[in-house]
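Example complex used in Figure S2.
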Amino acid sequence: MDDPTPGSENSAEKTAANSTRTETPQPAAGGDDAFDQRTFRRAVGQFATGVTVVTTLFEDQPKGLTVNSFTSVSLAPPLVLWNLGEGSDSHRAFMESEAFALHILHAGQEGLAKRFATRGADKFGETSWRSGPGGLPLLDNCLISLECQVEHRYPGGDHAIIVGRVNAIHHGEPGDPLIFHGGSFLTR
Ligand SMILES: Cc1cc2nc3c(=O)[nH]c(=O)nc-3n(C[C@H](O)[C@H](O)[C@H](O)COP(=O)(O)O)c2cc1C
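Predicted assembly (188 residues):
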């Protein structure tokens, strides 16, 4: 992609091509190459995301958690992914279920996001939901809900990367999305 910005990567590449390359990449000036987990978390938390709740049915029980690692992967076939922490109470449920539903939350659903991010909370008792195909829990009134079949699971450090094929799209109430940034939900 063209980048017209002076001093951008393109100019840097040209400069580097005319000078002697070192074998070991050097940290950028002011960079921190000896960071702890908290610093890493804060750094990546600067990336603003939407917020989703992912649900499944496991051993006849609805399971779910709040997730912001969602992204779309492929249009054809329609694939999405999200990351599941190995410390999650729902870990086994999502590692063994063959389907999940992913709900994109609107700005008024901060309470729902917090409930599904709280271990041990009565997540479904206080939530309006219905059973979809195969008993998949579908939450009411979200922006969009995607019914997915699990296609792949990959190891990713202390998370599993779960890739799903979207089988159905449910359109809920239109509205603004719920946004998460810097460890907080954004309110407008
Ligand atoms: C905004 C937000 C985004 C989150 N994203 C993820 C995520 O992508 N993957 C994950 O495993 N946990 C994520 N969490 C944490 C889980 O929601 C939290 O650990 C939850 O308690 C897990 O529920 P469980 O232990 O009952 O399964 C997120 C939490 C919040 C508040």
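Confidence is low (pLDDT under 50) at residues 1-25. The longest strand covers residues 144-156.
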